[in-house]
Design goal:
single chain; alpha/beta; TIM Barrel; 8-stranded mixed beta sheet; two-stranded antiparallel ribbon; 9 helices
Length: 293
């Protein structure tokens, strides 16, 4: 059997994947908004325990096609250790088509392009990465652990290795004072990285210690209204100029579901936002009680 160490998180698109906890927690675990792994100490799973779960899956669900390596950043493991996991998966699951994982930008600091090419050749096809913002002041306030330029430079490595990136950013994170700059600079970073997928979530605060307001440290910060969130999203979309990025803002946290390919669908997406902004009283926005992380 597979024994999960809770809480357990996965990207929405990995709902049909076999989830294996290669690590527990997050190696950074300091982001001011994040509650996911506050009560978990980061550590690698014992190889024999993980391999036993892979072997169980091979016996009980042998036709697995997709595997997601949890927890917060399995890419913190060494390349050799990840290769042993991928080799085991490939040897035991003959129908396996792809393996994905979460990562932080700093995970790539300790890996070369050649390391990542080895992982790609062994089946690691996509990495999910939380950029959160492209504005350096916001990144500092949330304690992301890197600057925007470092993020851009580090993300060149998986791109060069042929691994797809799915990057998430957070609307409303910066509050009113930095909202426009947050949107503009996030667009700049996404353009520079040009991930395969870019997803915008909307900030939802959960109880944590310290609270987000305390950890963020900007006395002017407040929760943005749904209309302000859409204005921020519009600025970001309008400032993005790279072609071929699949953009999503249809996560359960978002007020207005948006999805399309940039730049092809950009006019349609902007028009959807404008329709709400022109007549907010009659807008069909997702109510707060239906929003989820």
């Amino acid at each position: 059997m597979i024994h999960y160490n809770q809480p357990l998180y996965r990207p929405p698109s990995e709902g049909r994947s076999l989830i294996l906890q290669a690590t527990l927690g997050c190696s950074h675990n300091r982001c001011a908004f994040c509650v996911s792994y506050q009560k978990k100490k980061f550590r690698a799973r014992k190889q024999e325990d993980l391999f036993a779960e892979i072997d169980w899956a091979a016996r009980e669900i042998p036709h697995v096609r997709r595997v997601f390596l949890a927890d917060g950043d399995a890419m913190a493991l060494s390349t050799d250790r990840l290769m042993r996991i991928l080799d085991r998966l490939n040897s035991k699951l003959p129908d396996l088509q792809r393996v994905t994982a979460y990562a932080t930008p700093m995970n790539f600091k300790r890996k070369t392009v050649e390391d990542l090419k080895r992982l790609k050749d062994a089946g690691l096809t996509m990495i999910y990465l939380g950029a959160e913002s492209g504005d350096d002041e916001v990144l500092r306030l949330i304690d992301k652990g890197c600057t925007s330029d470092e993020m851009i430079e580090l993300c060149k490595k998986p791109h060069e290795a042929g691994i797809d990136l799915s990057i998430t950013v957070i609307l409303g994170l910066a509050g009113p004072r930095l909202s426009t700059r947050h949107a503009e600079q996030t667009a700049r970073v996404l353009d520079a990285i040009t991930p395969r997928y870019a997803s915008a979530l909307t900030l939802m605060l959960e109880p944590r210690e310290p609270s987000f307001e305390e950890a963020y440290g900007d006395p002017s910060w407040r929760v943005l209204s749904p209309i302000d969130i859409l204005k921020e999203c519009r600025v970001m979309l309008n400032c993005m100029h790279s072609d071929g990025i699949i953009f999503h803002a249809n996560h359960a946290s978002n007020y207005l579901p948006l999805a399309g390919e940039l730049q092809k669908d950009k006019p349609r997406l902007l028009a959807m936002i404008d329709q709400v902004l022109e007549d907010p009283d009659n807008a069909q926005l997702r109510p707060d009680f239906m929003r989820r992380l």
